[in-house]
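Predict structure. Chain length: 478.
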Amino acid sequence: MNYIKYMHPSIAGRGIGVGLLLCFLLTSCGLYKNYERPADISVEGIYGTAQSGDSLGLGDLSWREVFTDPQLQALIERGLAQNANMRQADLRIQEAQNSLKAARWAFFPTISFAPQGTISGVWDPQDRAQYKNVMGNGATKTYSLPIAANWQVDCFGQLRNAKKGSEVAVENMKTVRQAVQTALVSNVANMYYTLCMLDEQLRISKETSENWKKNLEVTKLLMQAGQSNKAAVASTEAQWWSIQSSVVEIEDNIVSVENALANLMGEVPHHIARGELSSFQTPKMCTTGVPISILARRPDVHQAELALASAFYQKNQAKASFFPSLNISAQGQYTNSLGAMVVNPGGIIAALVGSLTQPIFAQGKIRAAYKNALAEQEVAKIGFQQKVLDAGYEVASAMNAIHVAKAKENLIAQQVTSLTDAVTATEALMKNSNQVTYLNVLTAQSGLLGAQLSQVANQFAIIAGTIDLYQALGGGAE
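Prediction complete.
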């Protein structure tokens, strides 16, 4: 078998070696540096007066340690398994991981195989004798079995920075999932205890409605006995209708919250089984922890830093555009077609090509792209710092809400006790003397109802504040 070999001169190999040497000499320009958090990003004092010196805080606890109600835990687990946003976030992570794999494979050469063959000939349909020597001598068969490889040498970090950017994208999608999970856990807990609060308010309102119905009947009897008047009856009846209206409104709110909670968990509307408002136990470690921990736990803050890291690697890619790019191509094929010649059996043709491309004048596009990348990096840095401040503000607000609600807790309890005593005393005075009328009793009962509803709302405010603090500290993720 005959072999025909064509190789590039050795000068191509020397050119490639010089190019590689030049590449390695220029890699000291910082294009291979990893992202580091800027030293001037400060977290000191971001919690304001709510600053805590504890090494651990509420955000370090798992959601199961914070929300201990078994029925609530079951709801959260169903939500994490069925919520549409959670399922979409898992798929987005898979997409980002696939892109990262592709970026890693970019360091290896691309190899292609494209076999082809041709059969050609001339045939005279009239079978003329004078053309016998020209036509009809058989078909010419040619074939080619080429293999080509192309390798981009990553001299100036273009591929590396692209890979790093893909790694940041994967981490970002994981952070998105963490944000979805944190929000989901907090929303399910908030709706659950909202239902518990509404249940308690409904119970109080129904009990008060029954009492006012009795009061209305007594007032009517007193009017018939001449000890009351129509104005008192009308006033009592109007108040009773008002309480009945509030009962209907609370029942409607309960159905609305149940439907919203079912939808959040990816389920059709249905009744939500639940405990009582008093079932909530304040976590033993209800503190903020050290401020630096919020950078790693809180999803939106972590996302802002990942955006800064991505901008850093994009800036490096833009900077690498100033330097030459080195490509090495290799081709080889087994063929019997050599231009005008057809050789049987065929031969092997091989070629190795190295090319070095250095931008000289690109109409300012490369420099403009680099300046824009620097600006985007600064934009991301400012956004990161602001996210840190926003997180501190939300933590401080949640802590303040808990503090205010707990300060009011004892005051409202004392108010309920005093109004309960006032109702009892007023009822006793009305029975034993003529110093007070039934309107005084109704007024005292109305005040008690308002205080009891406020007490329930304040209990929920403590729970809601704890949930907000937990979310503000980045809790809720596994």
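Summary: Residues 31-115+139-323+358-472 form a domain with the Outer membrane efflux proteins (OEP) fold (CATH 1.20.1600.10).
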